[in-house]
Amino acid sequence: MNCPKNNKCMPAAGASVEEFNLTAYLAGEKECIDGHLAKLMDTIPDTNLLKPAMAYSLLGGGKRMRPILCLAAARAVGVPFREITEPVLSTGCAIEFIHTYSLIHDDLPAMDDDNLRRGRKTCHIAFDEATAILAGDALLTQAFEILASPDIAEKTSPGLLLSIVHAIARAAGPRGMVAGQMLDLAAEGCKVSVDELQQLHGLKTGALIRVSLGAGAELGGASSDQREALKRYGQAIGLAYQIADDILNVEGDPHVLGKAVGTDAQRHKNTYPALLGLSASKALAQSLVDNALQALGTFDKKADPLRAIARYVVLRRY
Amino acid sequence: MNCPKNNKCMPAAGASVEEFNLTAYLAGEKECIDGHLAKLMDTIPDTNLLKPAMAYSLLGGGKRMRPILCLAAARAVGVPFREITEPVLSTGCAIEFIHTYSLIHDDLPAMDDDNLRRGRKTCHIAFDEATAILAGDALLTQAFEILASPDIAEKTSPGLLLSIVHAIARAAGPRGMVAGQMLDLAAEGCKVSVDELQQLHGLKTGALIRVSLGAGAELGGASSDQREALKRYGQAIGLAYQIADDILNVEGDPHVLGKAVGTDAQRHKNTYPALLGLSASKALAQSLVDNALQALGTFDKKADPLRAIARYVVLRRY
After folding, report:
1. In this structure, which CATH number among 3.20.20.70, 1.10.10.60, 1.10.600.10, 1.10.287.1120 belongs to the domain A21-315?
2. Rounded CA separation A99/A109 (Å)
């Protein structure tokens, strides 16, 4: 399948890293992903009582970083720049369903109790708490329906898809993202070490980022060396992304971010700036970006989007 | 794989419907399933902060009706009485993970706000609300990790397993169980028709019961006629089971049930006894059991457990 907007969203196949226009690339990818997310939501009838809350949270913005990484990993190992296969796009979007469910549940009063997300009311404020819990449950379950759908299965190998379902469930479940959220809640009000904080984020945000890259690479036909390299890349940028998030919560612009800043300090949250200070946090994030770039050493220019994304992680303003 | 307790839990292969000892059969199946559920939980390290809440709700009792139906469907289409294949057992158990997550979330203060379940404190009372939400999320996600695990995949066909993942996600998701719970919440305080109530329960409890039978049948190698018949059986006993639940909430013994009775009437819930009266509700449940038995007309004695379960549905006291 070609991306419906591929003339707009893809760089010229021969673009070098210097010429690479990340802003245009990200905007194009986001447009393509947003379109596919909307298409996936269209399979749920409009009369469905959960659809408004699911669509509100899923289609109401977001950087789409996980599907973008999934697509970029597939491209880095060989899927041509101007083509996106439906299995890769749907897998990336299924991961975005999971990411969105996790945000809805994290924002609940019993958890982080946040009222604002992506510049809009959080799901339980816009609807109510019961609807938000169920919309989260629905998005998580729907993700697995998408991953295992016959439409995708017939375009790739069922064995490969099943192993991707397994990897994504593992990354999102009690030994992955959910464990990270539990550690995060348990750590509130406690002093943790940098190692403990790294473990927490490795689970809470890192696991889903790593599996986005891993799934894209698998579907793109990566070699085992390529998969290992992308794992190291994912490990590094996942953590750098979180450190950058912590930094933005200190010195970001709430209007650009679409959410309040200073909230981590108010809640005495364990963050990198709180543990290491702002300057050492920035240096750590930069060294992680360097590690990520190093991990891509053997990749050719097809990995330029991944390289540009790594640099962007610490430069982004939202 | 043989059931580790199969000497205890299986009836003699030639047992006729008259001789069939359902109590012993259900107790044996439950022991076998409880053992496998515990084994599946063992894959999560004891240091995992979510494990206690997951294990509390998953391993703290329950009739295991969904895995029992999954196993019975596989047997009805050919899996020998004294054998249970690991894919069938794990699939039934994965569905029990999903059922347990749905109970944890349904009991939350924002939903049904129940303090007692299976004779013990509900998860959010025994732990706290945030832990209960995350334990539910973890159980749901872990179910898909179990279904797609390489251990199971190598014992059956990946294509078949993928279609089972798809069917289970569909049954549990926004067009299945979660939609039923949303309809249930929306219907509180409103007057609904018998048809609407049937639709609600067809989603809230029926979808997962039907897919338990369907998945067991698929894994047991059912013909398309057998699958259709088991679908009709599931449709009928799923609804009969719910009507029996409503009746037990009126005239059950709270000590035997392990939960309070009369709560539906207090909350002005839409139930069959409220809509039709007790006597007509009992007659409807009985006629559904008759339909279920009729659906099994072409099956031989290997379907005796399913026949006995259908009769039990309206006779049970908890």
Report:
1. 1.10.600.10
2. 18
Q: Do B153 and A162 touch (CB under 8 A)?
A: yes
- DSSP state letters, chain A: ---TTHHHHS--TT--TTT--HHHHHHHHHHHHHHHHHHHHTTS-TT-TTHHHHHHHHSS----HHHHHHHHHHHHTT--TT---HHHHHHHHHHHHHHHHHHHHHTSTTTT--SEETTEE-HHHHS-HHHHHHHHHHHHHHHHHHHT-HHHHTTS-HHHHHHHHHHHHHHHSTTTHHHHHHHHHHHTTS---HHHHHHHHIIIIIHHHHHHHHHHHHHHT--HHHHHHHHHHHHHHHHHHHHHHHHHHHH--HHHHTS-SSHHHHTT---HHHHH-HHHHHHHHHHHHHHHHHHTTT--GGGHHHHHHHHHHHH---
Q: Which of residues 96-125 of B touch A (CB under 8 A)?
A: 101, 105, 108, 110-111
Nearest neighbour of B162 by CB, restricted to A101, A153, A170? A153
Which letter does DSSP use for residue B49 in this model? T
- DSSP assignment of B208-224 equals HHHHHHHHHHHHTT--H
- Chain B contacts in chain A segment 170-229 (CB below 8 A): 170, 172-175, 178-179, 181-183, 185-186
pLDDT 10s digits, A45-83 = 999 999 999 999 999 989 999 999 999 999 999 866 556
- Summarize pLDDT for A119-144 with one digit per residue, the tens: 899 999 999 999 999 999 999 999 99
- Residue A207 C-alpha, separation from nearest chain B C-alpha, in angstroms: 14
Interface of A with B in 121-150 (CB under 8 A): 128-131, 133-134, 136-142, 144-145, 147-150
**Which stretches of chain A score pLDDT less than 70?**
1-19, 79-84, 317-318
Note the maximum CA span of chain B.
52
Q: Is the ipTM of this complex over 0.85?
A: yes
Q: What is the pLDDT of residues B194-213, one digit of tens each?
A: 999 999 999 999 999 999 99
Q: Which two tokens stand for residue B64?
A: 């295991």
Q: A173–B141: do the CB atoms touch at under 8 Å?
A: yes
Q: What is the pLDDT of residue A189?
A: 81
Determine which of B64-68, B154-158, B205-209 has the lowest per-residue pLDDT on average: B154-158
Q: What angle do CA A195, A201, A204 make, to 5 degrees?
A: 145
pTM comes to 0.93
- Whether residues A48 and B175 touch (CB distance < 8 A) is answered with yes
Domain segments of chain A as ranges: 21-315
Handedness of CA A184, A187, A189, A192 (dihedral sign): negative
DSSP letters spanning B100-140: HHHHHHHTSTTTT--SEETTEE-HHHHS-HHHHHHHHHHHH
* Top-level class of domain B20-315: mainly alpha
Read off φ and ψ for residue B124, nearest 5 degrees. -75, -15
- Percent of chain A past pLDDT 70, that is, above it, reads 92
Helices assigned H by DSSP within B252-277 = 254-257, 263-266, 272-276
Please give the Cα distance from B132 to A110 (Å, whole number).
Answer: 10
B88 burial type by CB count under 10 A (0-12 exposed, 13-18 middle, 19+ buried): buried
